[in-house]
Design brief:
By secondary structure, the protein is an alpha/beta fold. The protein contains 14 helices and 13 strands. α1 packs across α14 and α10 crosses α13. The longest helix has 18 residues.
């Protein structure tokens, strides 16, 4: 059971929260999610403090945050829970974050790292957003008994989930997995959104080029970039992969056939997506997939792994592939590359579906979540519903 709500203010005083303290990290999709949401909330008059955990943001990330009126960025220097060396380090991060909340006095704490909820001692309502977790990652990618390094992190997350006033997940598939793995009430589903990026203009008279594009945390074996790398050997067109090859903990992967582009800023990624006829993402594990949404907004044909979350979000708007079969994947990619008209048609379908996952719905959904915990109304009886 989740702990009781700690604050029950007069609902008439809270049309929307004046101040949200939100955590983020600069490593992957959580940064994109947090900055986009903070930008939209600030645009509606909500004050947002974004507390960054783990590695410091890159200069382009800092510049993007500085451009948002009403957003305060704090580079805390605190350890990120999923890269921390031990449980004591995570507890120290939680305690320091609790102290920060006590100093700032926000009306809601939005944790994109819910493991921190148990030991922070927050005196205001806490919303935990379930972006991913090691237990579900291990189940999908490795299987079998988890190693000790995963078990203690999973137990911390379980305690964190139980300490949040309300949990949110970006897809129904991941909400179901979270409830089953951690024994908590099923999280409210508020699907992610994305601010469409402005692409660099294509060359005069030029259409889509002939290549396949992918992007993400390439070092994460759950992203399964090895399959796309193997398929690239079977194609007569290049496969370009944007994203870091080395993790924050030093784990590194190599690409033998796909062409690694390294970490790119948002404008550069948008430029590649504007030129690519096909975007491929073949993860074994993906609770939502913001880069897929970006590619769909850019009008790329989508070739995605046949997993529950992608089926939920993109069925009827993407081609699904077996994430273990490089030959079949190469055949699918080749067919689209050889038929630009079909790729364009598929890209149009992806763009239309992407309109369902806009920032307006994400922002409205999260404001409803904030209001719910701030006025003390129990939200869990409606957990079976997708509210955005």
């Amino acid at each position: 059971m989740l702990v009781p709500l700690r604050i029950v203010p007069n609902p008439k005083l809270w049309a929307k929260p004046p101040h949200v303290l939100m955590t983020a990290d600069s490593v992957g999709g959580v940064w994109t999610y947090a900055l986009d949401l903070a930008r939209e909330l600030a645009g509606q008059g909500t004050r947002v403090t974004l507390a960054v955990l783990g590695p410091s943001p890159h200069p382009d990330q800092v510049a993007a945050a500085d451009a948002v009126d009403g957003l305060e960025l704090i580079d805390t220097g605190l350890a990120l829970d999923w890269t921390a060396a031990d449980a004591a380090t995570v507890r120290r991060t939680a305690e320091a974050l609790g102290d920060l909340a006590g100093q700032l006095g926000p009306d809601v704490v939005h944790l994109n790292s819910p493991a921190l909820a148990a030991d922070a001692g927050f005196e205001m309502p806490v919303v935990g957003v379930c972006h991913s977790c090691m237990a579900s990652w291990w189940s999908a990618v490795r299987g079998g008994a988890m190693p000790e390094d995963f078990r203690w992190r999973t137990e911390l997350l379980r305690r964190g989930y139980q300490s949040c006033d309300l949990l949110v997940a970006p897809s129904a598939a991941f909400a179901d997995a979270t409830a089953a793995l951690y024994g908590v009430e099923r999280p409210v589903v508020v699907r992610n959104g994305r601010c469409a990026r402005k692409a660099t203009p294509r060359r005069a008279g030029g259409g889509r080029e002939r290549f396949v594009f992918t992007a993400g945390r390439l070092w994460d074996c759950g992203k399964n970039v090895a399959l796309l790398d193997a398929a690239a050997r079977r194609l007569d067109a290049p496969v370009f992969a944007a994203g870091p090859l080395e993790s924050p903990t030093g784990h590194r992967v190599a690409l033998d056939n796909a062409k690694a582009l390294g970490r790119l800023d948002g404008a550069s990624v948008a430029g590649w997506m504007a030129r690519a006829p096909v975007f491929a993402s073949l993860p074994l594990y993906e609770p939502f997939g913001l880069t897929v949404l970006e590619a769909a907004q850019a009008g790329c044909a989508l070739v995605l792994s046949d997993i529950a979350s992608f089926r939920e979000l993109w069925d009827g708007a993407a081609i699904f592939a077996d994430p273990t079969d490089a030959d079949a994947l190469a055949a699918t990619l080749r067919r689209l590359l050889d038929d630009p008209a079909e790729a364009k048609r598929r890209g149009g379908a992806a763009r239309r579906r992407a309109a369902r996952y806009g920032m307006d719905r994400l922002t409205t959904g999260m404001l409803n979540v904030y209001r719910s915990v701030m006025i003390g109304r129990p939200a869990y009886p409606v957990r079976s519903e997708v509210i955005a």
